[in-house]
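Recap for those who missed Tuesday's class. We walked through two folding examples back to back. For each one, the amino acid string is listed first and its predicted structure tokens come directly after. Nothing is annotated here on purpose, so try labeling regions yourself before you check the end of the notes.
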Amino acid sequence: MSSARSKIVKPAGVEPDELELEVARNVYELEQNVPDLRADLRVLQIVAAKELDIGHNKRAVLIFVPVPLLKSLRRVQPRLVRELEKKLSDRHVVFVAQRRILRKPTRTSRVGQKRPRSRTLTSVHEKLLEDMCFPTEIVGKRTKVKVDGSRVTKVYLDRKDHTSLEYKLDTFSSVYRRLTGKDVVFEFPREGVYVGGQLD
């Protein structure tokens, strides 16, 4: 267990829960037993793992990784997600980077340096969309404002990944709502429809 425990990054004095240990153990086993994943999984660590109820008797495991390790994760992410979904009892697996949002500076706040754009709420929410859908490309977005003032955003994904990703669209919507409080519908554009300035 000590080797699997090294896959989890926690602040001093904070112990991982059972789910985090289970994820770490599975990642470590894949590192040991799958040679073509070994190099990238050796450096991979997780920050946290949360199980979410996404409705219709389905559950998802949301796994947070440190931003500096995102590049290594993305080299193996599609394969790693498939392998973990087999091991985690048919729960959907979603990876996102652990990003921090900094408050908008006010006149009274003393901030030594300008807030980086990557730490704004808008930027972090955009990056969450990219993290969840990777490696599928987001080809367009549209926001509808309802009569009551509520907003629903439609996110259009590349049709070439339709068969491999359609089963997870509701999961993406539930996870994104849980993380941001925003309603997003994920879809694949119909053939012959312009999305994001291009004809699908």
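Example two. Treat it independently of the first, because the proteins are unrelated.
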Amino acid sequence: MTHEGPARRPGISRRAFTRLLALTAPATVAAREAFGQDPPALPPTPAHPTEAFWQSVRQQFTLPAGVAILNAANLCPACRPAADALARVTRAIDDDPSLENRRQFGEGREAARRTIAAHLRVAPEDVLITRNTSEGNNFVSSGVELKAGDEVVILGENHPSANAAFLDKAKRFGFTVTSVPPIVPHPGAGAYLDAFAKAITPRTRLVAITHVTATAGDLLPAREICRLARERGALSLVDGAQSFGLLDIDLSDMQPDFFTGSAHKWPCGPREVGVLYVNPRAKASLWPSVVSLYAGAVGVSRTHGALGQRDEAAMIGFAEALAFQQRIGPKLIEARSLALAARLADRLAAIPGVTLWTSRDPARRAAIVTVKPGSADPARLAAALYEKGRVACTARGGADRSGLRFSPHFYNLESEIDCAADAVRALMA
């Protein structure tokens, strides 16, 4: 099937985008009142950053002193450039909501699309700006035509919202959902590739996986699984909620048919804005899930991006968050975050009674560290860590590796990692 859209409209240059933000300068005073005085300028990124450099990075966030926020897998703070842009553009629209004034922010949306695409190393025509990962996943589960006799292969450890969407639609349309269970402990990429090779059948229309699991931070061989699906004639969906903004992702190399992510997690951007990448070869397989007005200007956004009134301020803030990451360097952000996670895993594993659920192998993990704190109740311990130790993490329940989940990011400091481990040790003593 094919979808037609309106004629393509040209976007604007980065220079024009900068002028666009300058138009909102009068609202800077309000932003400073909300976020405090401007932080010291971020210094140029050295080839081998020291802890002093990462301290200057932390100053680009409004995080409180004395609290270790190790909860990136759930919600990251917006960096100051993103929060400032969000406040400026929101104020500029509220000050003058006329069509004439708001037209410029539609152009800002297209500039944001280009920034997002460049970060993922794909074309802007293939990027749809969504509200979050879950919405992008649902656009795929609803948009790919699935019927009785078809099969979807999912990772059992996908986020529950992703798998629930497929299971619900299977009841309605009669297709089969086959789940590949998590392999504990993580056995390596080859074992997962073998498991999916056995699960995929001639009836398989779609393979849906998570790049990095939210449970224990297991890193899956996304590129290899996408290639396997392609060779078997199936589409591939990669949920990047726990990898986008953390790992240096190159979708032109991974080659998924669909990839989803959110700004509010590891990219350190605004809430309620995200991304769905649609590979050109898969566009004809995806029906629009929402039909409305105000589509985007290029590519898939013309056919699938008509979602009604949108928050251009959040989109522009999203782009500023990614531009901030680009100034530091995605490879350095990945290396820093993974190093902090490894430091924390080492410290926690040394505590008597603690069981480390997360793999110690760098090829099998990202920046999520999940532990079983002996016989302690995870929810009570997490609450005590925040109240007494000033450490924010997540308590995980359920049968699959329950415990405490820590997820440091590049804005954290080594001293915070050590304080978190010391607090766990003290509370378990």
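Answers for example two:
Residues 1-14, 16-36 have pLDDT under 50 and may be disordered.
The longest strand covers residues 204-210.
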